[in-house]
Design goal:
The chain has 456 residues and is of the alpha/beta class. It contains 17 helices and 14 strands. The longest helix has 14 residues. Bound molecules: nicotinamide-adenine-dinucleotide (NAD).
């Protein structure tokens, strides 16, 4: 052991004294899973200006149809084609586009592979993928292979191998692959990012994120809609099935992949009881929902350690009866912000102001509303979509493409945030032992630039 450690210190070129500071990883640094690159890094990728962004949609169910609606109200875009295996929802979206006075998009349906015909077109720049989770990785990869930029709903992928395939493909093709984490564009999340950047909380120490959203009712969606496929994930995997909504913003506060990186996690699940009880209460005895073996713990709690020593708690619970929360907590040496409901406590010189939460947000919005929200917030709220965050995200994607700017979220972010799904399962199944994160950036996180305070 001693020899190995001495060897590691030598080969890493670090002094023993340096390594012993709490800022540097000791336990996992020797075993960071990574892979040789298949092409140049796409960190900060800027692609040539696209004056009119020509878009194709794959999957226009509950989520994708909303994206189509927003695109009808965006400047500088053309909706070229839409694909869905469900002809009914497909036609609804096509009719919506026509009703806005826009040209009729081409229609693709008839098989699960019909999306490949859409990808064969040469008049599309970007593809928006809003299909069930298992389709995200193959469709994103096929999109980039067809020479188009991929924009994918959450989560980006479902296995570590898929994450690597997506990263490899983005690097080889030099295409964008953005996981569309809309919560990063919420007014509160943007304001907290602005506060963090201005140093209000001091040095960041700890974050808390969550997707606590009671969704048992989706089990009643049997033949179509989200519950018709999502329910089965509760029978296949025990971990955090949906980590990115809470984790995306906390990662941007902490500059994850841009100066810091997820190092390892440990995860624990509660018993899985709620879905079986719900099925027993809501469905006849012989109903399929009563035959399923629900294994995903009702509450999953994962702890992530970053290489800078910070900690993040991420929770997942779509089963128990309790109010919605993404926690949205960020703790620094000088104070804390917490969401759901919003509250803040800051140490001010000579006062013990931090013993009480300040819940009056008006003055904080007035001082710290993010420049992007100041510019676009009203229009975003008017267009709606989770309080405007959906519209703002899509607007910002189009803005970056039309102005040759890097996107706010890249393929490495999508992979790092999504892989928590997979690694949490591995930890839960191994008595919560820690699991190392792959370094999808292959070391580029060290020089990655923190996200700027985009005001556009
Ligand atoms: N970011 C958010 O706030 C948010 C909110 C809701 C859903 N989502 C995500 O959006 C995605 C879609 O969820 P949803 O609620 O719209 O589900 P949904 O079941 O309503 O829609 C999925 C659609 O994909 C279609 N589809 C399935 N396989 C296909 C294939 N091979 N080719 C073409 N179309 C296919 C289905 O027919 C359906 O219309 C999921 O990944 C979900 O996690 C994100």
């Amino acid at each position: 052991m001693k020899l190995n450690r001495r060897h590691f210190l030598k080969t890493a070129g670090l002094s023993a004294a340096g390594l012993l500071t709490s800022q540097l990883p000791i336990s996992s640094a020797e075993a960071v899973p990574t892979k040789p690159a298949a092409g140049a890094s796409v960190m900060g990728l800027v692609v040539p200006k696209i004056d009119t962004v020509r878009v194709g949609f794959i999957g226009v169910g509950q989520r994708g149809s909303g994206h189509v609606k927003h695109f009808c109200h965006l400047e500088g875009v053309e909706i070229k084609a839409i694909c869905d295996t469900d002809a009914q929802v497909l036609d609804k979206s096509i009719e919506f586009v026509i009703a806005q006075g826009l040209p009729k998009p081409a229609r693709y349906t008839g098989s699960e592979q019909a999306y490949k015909d859409l990808l064969n077109r040469d008049d599309i720049d970007i593809v928006i993928i809003s299909t069930p989770w298992e389709w995200h990785a193959p469709m994103a990869i096929d999109t980039m292979e067809s020479g188009k930029h991929a924009f994918v709903e959450v989560p980006l992928a479902l296995t570590v191998e898929e994450c690597w395939q997506i990263v490899d493909t983005a690097e080889r093709t030099q295409k964008n692959c953005m996981m569309m984490e809309n919560v990063n564009y919420g007014r509160d999340e943007l304001m907290v990012l602005n506060m963090v950047r201005q140093g209000l909380f001091g040095e960041l120490l700890h974050g808390e994120a969550a997707y606590i959203h009671e969704l048992r009712w989706q089990m009643k969606e049997i033949d179509s809609k989200t519950g018709s496929w999502r329910t089965y994930w509760h029978t296949k995997r025990n971990g955090n099935l949906y980590p990115t909504h809470g984790l995306g913003p906390v990662s941007q506060y902490m500059n994850i992949n841009r100066g810091d990186r997820f190092d390892y996690l440990t995860s624990m699940s509660s018993p899985a009881l709620g879905r079986a009880l719900y099925a027993e209460r809501e469905f006849p005895d012989d109903h399929e929902r009563n035959q399923l073996n629900y294994i995903n713990g009702d509450m999953n709690t994962t702890l992530i350690k970053t290489v800078k020593g910070r900690s993040i708690m991420v929770q997942h619970d779509t089963t128990t009866p309790r109010p919605y929360s993404r926690h949205n907590l960020i703790q620094g040496t000088n104070g804390v912000f917490a969401g759901f409901p919003n509250r803040i406590a800051i140490e001010q010189a000579g006062s013990a102001s931090y013993h009480k939460w300040d819940r009056d947000m008006a003055k904080w919005y007035a001082k710290y509303d993010h420049p992007l929200w100041q510019r676009m917030g009203q229009e975003a709220e008017r267009n709606g979509g989770h309080g405007g965050m959906d519209f703002l995200m899509l607007w910002r994607m189009v803005y970056c493409l039309r102005n040759a700017e890097p996107l706010d979220q890249d393929v490495y972010d999508g992979a790092a945030w999504s892989v928590v799904n997979i690694l949490s399962e591995a930890s839960v199944n191994n008595r919560s032992n820690s699991v190392n994160f792959p370094d999808f950036t292959r070391g580029a996180w060290k020089s990655g630039k923190p996200l700027g305070l985009i005001g556009a």
